[in-house]
């Protein structure tokens, strides 16, 4: 269809455009094809209009696509290609702005957590039977995207932390003796102990500090310490997020795209509500989240139902990876544990949606109207790296009474003082000052052969020397609730002798948890933490007045009786 | 120490109570899984409610407080515990029981007998207010008119108003209801599922109807409502009632059945079986979500005004109860349920067609004769104090 510029009824704007037009009757972009369409007083030929980008791009960014192998993320990859690809004649035109710069694909290989087929005989799992990495790699290669792969057990590798090499792990200890714990009814106050992993004995710089098997064992030990399927699934989910963010950062990507479908988001909303993660819910389910520093997390498929994405993959012949997600059924010991909150929610929403088809859309819409909490990059929960509300432990204690008639609840006052101490960032002695006169020497490291991180519970009443750092007081509500499902028999108590500590603790938390705890306590690096001065720990809490004084010292005018 | 009267050393106690360690445990606490003896259970149960009351500053000394009493387990235990705590901690509250008679034969009339027994057992005065007297329609009448779908909406709306009206008649400062943790968790889930943001913001508040900061100058009754059982598990309420041998009436409303809430309830029960703290976790999430909704300025929350007919607080010209009643009286039971514009159009069309009399095409002929009896203008709020026809306070 052609529109010609009509002379008799020209407006001033049209006149101006006409004057500006150099090649009247020809396309203003390519300048040689005859113009067929006039838009806003400028003429285009068909090809040019199709390729014109109706949006403005300031700076194209790098995107990391999270690919699990399932239909949603497979569709994500394909759709990004469709959306991003330019026809050849335009691709060569360097001046044409791209929406995204480079597209990367990452994949987390969870094959070590699949049901063991013949793992007993096969100690060395370097053979990639069951590994999903190659399939993912070839799919990404098909689109010409850069590929980054990581295994879920690599979460225990010191490399996958913000500092790239945080060589420490965390063990948890209970603050009360074990026999008291079983009867207290409350979630035990957990303390952490940061155990630096011994330096690698090999001289090679790039040799991984831990073998694959060792990492798998650590992961399985941690999962084994969780008594419920819900806890296992939640912890794995936190590990996945941590790895994805690290992968995005490694790939220099400022955008991380997840393939969450509307169905998945709706299930997530109800699931997060049910496990007490309402505070972080807006970040974990929104279209665009700014929670992570320097990395926007987007969920472009948030309005598509999983059935639609499934059909999309089928109709376009897109190949999927079978058994791409960790199946944890084999870790369950009793029949009662077969249910997890995620599975229950999945069944619930899917069932409800059949009867009330707008359920998924309504739930997503509700959550979209929530304002997320302010991003505070330095106040992250050590386990899930999410936002932490103040006063969470206090809230829990208020609503559940655990003292006998006539007994005074000493734990409240004791732990509150513990909290205030750990919050004084200026004083590195904060963690240890609760131990009256206790001498915490950082040289007190466990022997190299033990990789055990002891989980120490810190009770304020104990006087045993301990290099314990807070843990429960740093957690968000969701993680506090989740860790109630940790099996106490895998943890030592703070009052155990060192022998008992060695033998009874049997699981560790990965390096990124240690890194976050160290940062929360105000140290910039592991070195700084290890060399914090502990000898001068006063019996009482560090005087905040004193720390203020040192900051303003240079401005104080000495009084007459002071020398210098 | 276990009291052995003879000289033999005391046998170690099998299964001691986790808290006092001195007596054998006889129950497992649903909230925490602890094994407790009866006395310790009563202690934690009562103390938690006391903490809730004190931490949230629910009452002032000397307040006159109406306890919403249905005869069911929640309200019976509520009445018992309120009286107990009032005496034990000297809240100095003036307690009365307020009961609503919806007019459901075979259900409400039985439970009202229970409430009357409670009045005698706990020595608290009682006022019964009925739908029939207030609105001219009992629930039995309503269900006959509209069937078994949407009847919960009518009952809920009417009951809320009835409670407030009863409270005005009794001249109380505060109403307490027996909503427990399970109820609130269900409500949070329901509001998310149905996309009801304004309700999501309000449903976890322990005190509602608090218009002290509202300076819009509207007339409200300023009667606060609160839920002392906000963090109390339903199972524990049942356990308490059982061990204290309290008298309550325990069947389901005969009209209840397929409410949407039933789905949320089943899901909640499943969650509780997997993780017993799930109920409290949902409430905590709900509180966080409520703050999120509030922070979102673009969410339009309705502004409050007064109903033009009866003076009750309302976000529209006519309050929901008057609207529903209008529908019932005109034989248009759908009025006020679902999208009203379509019904209104139908009503207007019908009105025009039949010349403003009862639209014969839409209502059955049998009700048109009885329509005059059933049409009743609801008493304006400000006139409630002078009512002569309402039942008077049934003192002990």
TrEMBL record, chain A:
SUPFAM superfamilies: Adenine nucleotide alpha hydrolases-like (SSF52402). The keyword tRNA processing applies. Residues 410-464 are annotated as: Disordered. Keywords: Cytoplasm, tRNA processing. Its main location: cytoplasm. It is found in: Cytoplasm. It comes from the Eukaryota. Pathway: tRNA modification; 5-methoxycarbonylmethyl-2-thiouridine-tRNA biosynthesis. GO terms for cellular component: cytosol. GO terms for biological process: protein urmylation; tRNA wobble position uridine thiolation. Coiled coil: none annotated. The keyword Repeat does not apply. Residues 410-421, 429-464 have a biased composition (Low complexity). GO terms for molecular function: nucleotidyltransferase activity; sulfurtransferase activity; tRNA binding. Pfam families: CTU2. Belongs to the CTU2/NCS2 family. Plays a central role in 2-thiolation of mcm(5)S(2)U at tRNA wobble positions of tRNA(Lys), tRNA(Glu) and tRNA(Gln). May act by forming a heterodimer with NCS6 that ligates sulfur from thiocarboxylated URM1 onto the uridine of tRNAs at wobble position. Prior mcm(5) tRNA modification by the elongator complex is required for 2-thiolation. May also be involved in protein urmylation. This is Cytoplasmic tRNA 2-thiolation protein 2.
UniProtKB/TrEMBL annotation, chain B:
This is Cytoplasmic tRNA 2-thiolation protein 1. The keyword RNA-binding applies. Its main location: cytoplasm. It is found in: Cytoplasm. Pathway: tRNA modification; 5-methoxycarbonylmethyl-2-thiouridine-tRNA biosynthesis. Plays a central role in 2-thiolation of mcm(5)S(2)U at tRNA wobble positions of tRNA(Lys), tRNA(Glu) and tRNA(Gln). Directly binds tRNAs and probably acts by catalyzing adenylation of tRNAs, an intermediate required for 2-thiolation. It is unclear whether it acts as a sulfurtransferase that transfers sulfur from thiocarboxylated URM1 onto the uridine of tRNAs at wobble position. Prior mcm(5) tRNA modification by the elongator complex is required for 2-thiolation. May also be involved in protein urmylation. NCBIfam families: TIGR00269 family protein. Its EC number is 2.7.7.-. HAMAP family: CTU1 (MF_03053). Keywords: Cytoplasm, RNA-binding, Transferase, tRNA processing, tRNA-binding. Residues 65-252 form the tRNA(Ile)-lysidine/2-thiocytidine synthase N-terminal domain. Belongs to the TtcA family. CTU1/NCS6/ATPBD3 subfamily. Residues 306-335 form the Cytoplasmic tRNA 2-thiolation protein 1 C-terminal domain.
